[in-house]
Amino acid sequence: MSQRGWICLAVLAISLTLALALGWRELWASACVLAVLFMTAVGFVLGKARYDVTVDLARRRVVVGEQAVGRLLVRNPGSSTIAPAQVELPVGRGLATFQVPRLGPGEELEELFTVPTQRRAVLQLGPVRSVKSDPLHLLRRTAGLNDPAELYVHPRIVQLANSSTGLLRDLEGLARQTISNDDISFHALRQYAPGDDRRHIHWKSSARTQNLMVRQFEETRRSQLAILLAARPGEYADPDEFELAVSTAGSLGVHALADGKAITLLGPHRATARHTKGQLLDGLSAVELNDRARPLQDQAGTIAAHAPGASIVVLVTGSPVSPEQLSRASSRLPVAAHRLAITVDPNSTLRRRTSGDLTLLTVPTLEDLATALRKGI
């Protein structure tokens, strides 16, 4: 029932009660008119519009600021004509309404729509629902027609050049003491044994010793990047600063994945490993400021548990977090990890400083991040 319907129902109840108590004909007339209107409205909402509905998106992943284009297809699958109706398509917190004309058997209606994406989000589209209502909009009946779909609005990221290693070194991994027959770091030679890969035979040494000799290698550990994104409202001056921090984390993560690093993202809820660019940006699309998120220092203390093999740890936060707070958080990071703290501050200038073994970088814009990493500022 609509809000107008509830009001009319309340007036009907009051009129009927007073008419019984006072016997006024005017109140009886008012109650009768409202009762007739409600009975007439019931006739309009009976039955169900049986449509086949398809919602197609040109792209299910867009960057904030881009328009997502979609298509709504409504088809009459039955053998009888369906009267004109209205269908609604919820889009996040918004609602798109489409008027469907009378459709004969097998006929269909196609409507194109666009979804503006002013902010980063994960938007649920649907389920599409048919709406039946009376002319006075007293009663309203809806029925879901399809399953909902998701639209990911990714944060804006900046492309970091392949040479952007001034502050993100360790691209080749860390050597381990385990000996392997197939890796990158050469260790020694040993005599050939049945089953060894002949591609690793060292022919010069074999000719000199008159025995087949094969190379041995030290296994290398794949570089792992842990990104800790602060997510408490007090750690940012305003929502725009938080959006810049999310874009910064996304830019670093996408660049690291392209370089073959493993990624662990620590946000407001839990630590999650990201193996592809899509997974990383999908996760960042849903990140929001959260009063219940743990403070930066407490989150830093969990990195050893969530990413014990992290070779680089990047703390990303806003301007209210002081260098002293960042230093205290850094003291709780794994000892062997390289440490970088990035403070996003649109009102500052690009600068770099060090505090012990922690590098502190202040970034006013996303483009300045690319400059800093390219030049090793």
Descriptive labels:
alpha/beta; 9 helices; 377 residues; single chain; 4-stranded antiparallel beta sheet; 28% helix
Helix and strand arrangement:
Elements: H1 3-22, H2 25-45, E1 52-57, E2 61-63, E3 68-75, E4 85-91, E5 94-100, E6 108-115, E7 121-125, E8 129-133, E9 140-144, E10 149-154, E11 174-180, E12 185-191, H3 203-209, E13 213-221, E14 224-229, H4 239-258, E15 262-266, E16 271-274, H5 277-285, H6 296-300, H7 303-306, E17 312-318, H8 323-330, E18 338-344, E19 351-355, E20 358-363, H9 366-375
Parallel strand pairs: 2-10, 14-15, 14-17, 17-18, 18-20
Antiparallel strand pairs: 1-3, 3-6, 4-5, 4-8, 7-10, 8-9, 11-13, 12-13, 15-16, 19-20
Helix pairs in contact: 1-2, 4-5
Structural commentary:
This protein is of the alpha/beta class and 377 residues long. Helices cover 28% and strands 33% of the residues. The chain has nine helices and 20 strands. It has helices at 3-22, 25-45, 203-209, 239-258, 277-285, 296-300, 303-306, 323-330, 366-375; strands at 52-57, 61-63, 68-75, 85-91, 94-100, 108-115, 121-125, 129-133, 140-144, 149-154, 174-180, 185-191, 213-221, 224-229, 262-266, 271-274, 312-318, 338-344, 351-355, 358-363. The strands form five sheets. A seven-stranded mixed β-sheet has the order 16-15-14-17-18-20-19, sandwiched between helices. Helix 1 packs antiparallel against helix 2 (25-45) and helix 4 (239-258) runs antiparallel to helix 5 (277-285). The radius of gyration is 32 Å and the shape is elongated.
